[in-house]
Amino acid sequence: MTRFIAPIITLAILVGFFFVGLHKDPSIVPSPLIGKPAPVYELPLLLKPDETLGTEKLLGQVYLLNIWGTWCPGCRVEHGALLEIERQNIVPIYGLNLKDDPRLARQWLAELGDPYVATMVDTEGRVSIDWGIYGAPETFLVDHDGMIVHKLIAPINMQIWHEDFLPLIQQLKAAQP
Amino acid sequence: MIPELGLFALVLTFCLAFIQSFAGLAGAYWRKPEWLALVRPMASGQFVFAALSFGLLTWSFIVNDFSVEYVALNSNTELPFFYRIAAVWAAHEGSLLLWILTLSAWTLGVAWANKDMPIVFRARILGVLGLINCGFMLFVMATSNPFIRLLPAALEGRDLNPLLQDPALVIHPPILYAGYVGLAVAFAFAVGALIEGKVTSNWARWLRPWTLLAWAFLTVGVALGSWWAYYELGWGGWWFWDPVENASFMPWLMATALIHSLAVTEKRGLFKSWTVLLAICGFSLSLLGTFLVRSGVLISVHAFASDPARGLFILIFLGLCIGIALGLYAWRAPAFGSGGGFKVLSRESFLLLNNLMLVVAAGLILIGTLYPLFIDALEMGKISVGPPYFNLVFLIPTLPMVLLLGVGMHSTWKRARWEMLWLRLRTPLSIAVPVALGISFAWGRPSVLTFVGVFAGVWVILSALSEVRQRQKMGRSFFALPRSVLGMLTAHIGLGLFVLGTTVTSVFSIEKDLALRAGDVVELAGYQIKLETLRNTEGPNFDAVEGVVTIRRDGEMVTTLYPQKRVYRVQTSPMTEAGIEAGWTRDLFVALGDDLGNGSWSLRIQFKPLVRFIWLGALVMAFGGLLSMSDPRYRKKRQAEAPAPELAEGTAP
Amino acid sequence: MKKRYQRGIRVALVLAGVGIAVALMLRAFDENILYFYTPRQVVAGEAPDGRRFRLGGLVTLGSIEREPGSLKVSFLVTDNQKTLTVEYEGVLPDLFRDGQGVIAHGAMNDKGVFVADEVLAKHDENYMPPEVAEALKEVHGENES
């Protein structure tokens, strides 16, 4: 008799392991920075190299900070979504161009469209370390007080935007008249 | 509009499949002839609408409709037309749609072939197939809809993954899926038999051609995948024991075991519950493969983007499908009985050993594949299991199996005699030893294991050929052999070629990583390989650096190869396109690595003896399967069987 | 009687086969299992001495150095907390580049350098090896506390 029951028991054990395995999927990487103030920095702009922008100047608004580089394939993937988010005109998007050739970066924006209000340049990656960035693309949501509310380590797409970002933004906007 | 129609067609397909399974299973249970009559038309409708849905998605690719997200993510206006069609099944969503279409096609086949099958039994099988397809369609609609709009539309698509822009990869998924999904037919037959509570030799006779067909597809599919890996991503490796490769190989092993076990069930009425179990396990491993590939629980170079929600859905589906089948098995199979006996030395024994070895091999591969998952789930660390493990545990059961196969082919049912076997085998044996020695020493000094491997290959081929000779001796011509026997012999010759190719390639390949400048010459296995120059070139959607490599042997020109390092414009990912000089006895393989500065580039140069035999063997095997499947015996009217079937064709309108 | 005898032989054959297979398998397992470590774990001395293991992390931007004209290459692998030097000789995979996730197979030498005999990068554009991502997650978690 046991030999007829053995297969289904094996299956049950396997399925149990798979279930545990599924939940171990490390697709979400929590950021240590969430709920903390954005790092203080000041960086030159990509398109107007003699002007600078930084944490202080961005205070008082809810905005997205998107980390990108022309070397990063995921950034190309998410570019369409960023343009779409910009078109919806809900929050401004600031770009942080990471360890890149400014010439290529400008060419990129000219070719693919520019979703950013302004793009800061971090050629050496110094500021990125403060932000806990270990790759690109990444997208941060920062509130009026300069606190990091949410962080995405992956190309953004419209589904993530609608499900993860928009509700948070609406909350933030509701809280702050 | 087109994509919406596509989704609508898919919903319709779902409805038809649902009616088909309900009418089939409930109609058979309550014996409602008018319900049973619905089943076959539903199967036809299901296929038509599945094809329509698939066709409409294809259309969106052809016309570059980037308002469909799936199209925008996987195609591009620069993409050549041929690849635009292949892009339909390049990613998760579309490949599932292909899966559904394939299952509908198999369903259609089962519905309209097998004219002598009792209508109730057919309804049950179609009912089970319909349920499986329903599950997959729910999966698509709930988590992986390929028809989702992207509004406003993207101006340009993200392009097809450059790795997949390759002719072999265009046909690899459809063929592999045909095999995977074909095992669903065996699964449905098994569940049907369990519901009815009996396994007959007619049951085995109906199922065998389907299994052979699925197995042939699977063989070609796995071989194509290996061939692709060889020239496209493997830098000359042809099998990596990657989880995704294992996921396609384990069902193949099971299907192989099933074919052999079905032979015993058909001819001798034995191994009934075992055959049913194999039929369930074969498809279960297909589902398991789908789960592993698409849920991201294991790390693989081939994996689709991982998504836990999808993983959970497949896991539940897999648990239900296999759980119900195995539950039925635990409940019903004990009643199948075991039929007549056989001697230790008999064809039955050899086939039993074959089954055992194949299942043990599949089991050991399964353990190795899942071991990292177990360890991770138990929080015991992160590990990976290396290829040497797989090589070893695969060889332990299969090498003796191949050696025994040469004998088993000649043994008779019930009881075989040593004297008879010896009479038939002494000639092939006496030829095989010197031939194997000759081949073993052709490329250098072999080890004992190398000799055994080469011998096993040669031995199987010669043993199969000797069967033909025996028949001729008895005055029968080669073509008068039943096609199923011819097919069996052909497939075994294919296996021999495969074993030969694998052994020689694994042992005698030479591989060199070199830094070369234009003008440098290297010597490899008697060939002079010269990097003449490097130049820039471009294709329709990529830019490339191309090496011009000439190959001479004793000063005589053999060929010129053009290995490339490509950068695809849209995804900006680099790709190595190897230059391969293929031949019967050896491949020469040149791949371009990186720019090392100072004008030198890294190159990987390989000499691979008999590597073509690996895929040639697989093709011959598949051909043997098809030959066997075409045996007229499978299309004959039902043969008289001891217990009369209570519901013949005539009882239903 | 005869049947039982036959059955006995079959059972014995099966058991012997399974037994040998299990024994060999365990041995093969022992030799072929590679544990995964991050640079932080290696620096903390958690990785075994002299045994091969897999090192995972990200290639530090701008750290790839080639010895001109040869296949020798060295680069830094980091988990954003500790960094290790990796040396490798051979052809690197297509998707190997700085800033990307990488897994290297090899062992530590006595100079504290990881000598790799195999380097893997994944054929996925948005890839970060899950193990690496998880390792990084742990590091971040500790930073926070």
Report what the structure shows:
Chain A has 177 residues and is α/β, with parallel strands linked by helices. Chain A has helices at residues 2-23, 55-58, 73-88, 102-112, 126-130, 158-175, and strands at residues 42-44, 52-54, 63-68, 93-98, 118-122, 138-142, 148-152. In chain A, the strands form 2 sheets. A 5-stranded mixed β-sheet of chain A has the order 5-4-3-6-7. With 653 residues, chain B is an alpha+beta fold. Chain C is of the alpha+beta class and 145 residues long. Chain C has 2 domains: 1-33; 36-144, OB fold (Dihydrolipoamide Acetyltransferase, E2P). Chain C contains 3 helices and 7 strands, in the order αβαββββββα. Chain C has helices at 2-32, 39-43, 130-144; strands spanning 33-37, 53-59, 65-66, 72-78, 83-89, 101-108, 114-120. In chain C, α2 links the parallel β1 and β2. At the B-C interface, α12, β1, α13, β2 and β8 of B face α1 and β1 of C. β1 of chain B pairs antiparallel with β1 of chain C, so a sheet runs across the interface.
How would you concisely characterize the structure shown here?
Chain A has 177 residues and is an alpha/beta fold. Helices cover 43% and strands 19% of the residues of chain A.
What's the end-to-end separation of chain A, in Å? Answer: 72 Å
CATH superfamily heading of chain A: Glutaredoxin
**What is the H/E order of chain A?**
HEEHEHEHEHEEH
* Structural class designation of chain A: alpha/beta
Strand content of chain A: 15-25%
Q: Average pLDDT value of chain C?
A: 74
Poorly predicted segments of chain A:
25-32
Strand order of the largest sheet of chain C: 2-4-5-7-6
Major sheet size, sense and barrel closure of chain C: 5 strands, mixed, barrel
Name the CATH superfamily classification of the largest domain in chain C: Nucleic acid-binding proteins
Domain count of chain C, please report it: 2
DSSP summary, beta strand count of chain C: 7
- Ends apart, CA distance between termini of chain C: 73 Å
